[in-house]
Automatic annotation (TrEMBL):
One of its GO terms (cellular component) is cytoplasm. The keyword Cell division does not apply. This is tRNA1(Val) (adenine(37)-N6)-methyltransferase. It comes from Labilibaculum manganireducens. It catalyses: adenosine(37) in tRNA1(Val) + S-adenosyl-L-methionine = N(6)-methyladenosine(37) in tRNA1(Val) + S-adenosyl-L-homocysteine + H(+). Keywords: Cytoplasm, Methyltransferase, S-adenosyl-L-methionine, Transferase, tRNA processing. It is an enzyme of class 2 (transferase). Specifically methylates the adenine in position 37 of tRNA(1)(Val) (anticodon cmo5UAC). One of its GO terms (molecular function) is tRNA (adenine-N6)-methyltransferase activity.
């Protein structure tokens, strides 16, 4: 059973009220995405608020971070986590679907991040809140891409983390929507193993895409690669 909380170096994530617990995907995205030009950030499907709080740790004090969450208990958990973290003044949570949020907001964002629901097929979880968190029925990729395109500034960036198959499908859809691939990282569990996840950055202006690989473990369980340690050392207590 997952712990009721997860302790990072500079903040704690209480997660007993959220359907989706702290996981490697969110940590990787929050640590990897380029925040150097971001003054307004949006986290879509924030869950516990993990990625939004990572953005809070990594950015200057004048940056504003909005977080959208459709599921009530996860939203309430994020609100509490935001209130108890060092960057509470930078963080703002909304209890809405992303589709509803797009209809009411007038803000334009320099960076939109999401660890989105991605199950396109298969059985639904017995728990409805977990189903909302995991299945793309509640936030179809098309809605995510079209909404992000409308909310980004001209030089803004959309960044997501997805499993390989869903990621390849998302990349094709992004191109059809009008996005250009900016950066793509293939996340490998061990050397020589196939990638399990993709980290993406998409932009609205034509650019030359950059590709790289990130190996998590050096062939032995819990023996982490220098690249993985360097990426996550500002967050994980174990590094």
């Amino acid at each position: 059973m997952a712990n009721n909380y997860f302790e990072f170096k500079q903040f704690r994530v209480d997660q007993n009220g959220s359907a989706m617990k702290v996981g490697t995907d969110g940590v990787l995205l929050g640590a990897w995405v380029d925040i150097s030009k971001a003054n307004r950030i949006l986290d879509i499907g924030t869950g516990t608020g993990l990625i939004a709080m990572m953005m809070g740790q990594r950015t200057n004090s004048d940056v504003k971070i909005d977080a959208v969450e459709i599921e009530l208990s996860s939203y309430q958990q994020a609100v509490n986590n935001f209130a108890n973290c060092p960057w509470t003044s930078k963080l703002n949570a909304f209890h809405l679907s992303f589709q509803e949020f797009c209809q009411i907001t007038t803000v334009r964002y320099d960076l939109i991040v999401s660890n989105p629901p991605y199950f396109l097929n298969g059985l639904k979880a017995k728990c409805e809140t977990r189903t909302q968190a995991r299945h793309a029925d509640y936030l179809p990729f098309e809605d995510l891409l079209n909404g992000a395109m409308n909310l980004l500034t001209e030089s803004g960036v959309l960044s997501v983390v997805l499993p390989v198959d869903e990621g390849e499908y998302f990349q094709r859809l992004a191109g059809l929507t009008g996005f250009y691939l900016k950066r793509k990282i293939s996340v490998l569990p061990n050397p020589g193993k196939p990638a399990k996840r993709y980290l993406f950055e998409f932009c609205l202006q034509k650019c030359e895409a950059q590709f790289a690989e990130l190996i998590v473990e050096n062939g032995q369980r819990h023996v982490y690669s220098p690249e993985y340690i360097n990426l996550t050392k500002d967050f994980y207590l174990k590094f």
